[in-house]
Amino acid sequence: MRRSLVVGNWKMNGTLASAELLVKGIIAGLGDNKADIAVCVPYVHLPKVSELVENTALAVGAQNVADKLSGAFTGEVSAAMLTEFNCKYALVGHSERRSYYGDTDETVAARFCQAQEQNITPVLCVGETLEQREQDETFSIIDAQLNAVINLAGIAAFGAAVIAYEPVWAIGTGKTATDEQAQEVHQYIRKYIAAKDQAIADKIQILYGGSAKPDNAKGLFAMPDIDGGLIGGASLDAESFLKIYHSI
């Protein structure tokens, strides 16, 4: 049985003071550790948040990771640097990084590998735009995004990774994929991996990342191939984030 996972993505939000209040609120409401839970916070908040989550069930992650180990790459943060703050997870290939900052399937795969080399679990974000969905390109887009990692790291790399399916058309738009639409793509991803390694497909956590909220999380999480969520806006409020977590 796969263990479920809920990851909050704070994006570029919050102050040090609000981050501390939010983390303390989440920790206070965790209750039984029935699923894995993490928050991916802005780089500048990692020192404080990593200190606050120590010896709790709440893990911390980064929102991105450099595709190089070190060097003259101004503004980048390496996986080795992230390990100093006990980062368990790092998002790679989030749709906002792909669309706003030029990440390609190849650079995302390099970031994925850099995270794993430092024993950080990459959360590989994959998904299609509205235009791509309307042109029936969803599965070919998913194939390309997965294959970039497989070609660079091999299928075995997914044995220590998480996948998050983000229908780009449902991020920050108020739209959400129906339970069945989300399940269809999650099932496709799992079968795609199973064709290469059944054991990894059975084990890997595949999260839904498209405007999940307290009122729709339970239905999404009930789907057989949806193992939790990558939560954006709702993760900025402890009560909402905890409701999603407890709907597992």
Automatic annotation (TrEMBL):
KW Isomerase (keyword) present: yes
Natural source organism: Candidatus Methylobacter oryzae
UniProt-listed Enzyme Commission number(s): 5.3.1.1
Pfam hit, one: TIM
Subunit structure, as described in the record: Homodimer.
Pathway membership, UniProt: Carbohydrate degradation; glycolysis; D-glyceraldehyde 3-phosphate from glycerone phosphate: step 1/1; Carbohydrate biosynthesis; gluconeogenesis; Carbohydrate metabolism; erythritol degradation
Gene designation: tpiA
List of catalytic residues: H94 (electrophile), E166 (proton acceptor)
Protein name: Triosephosphate isomerase
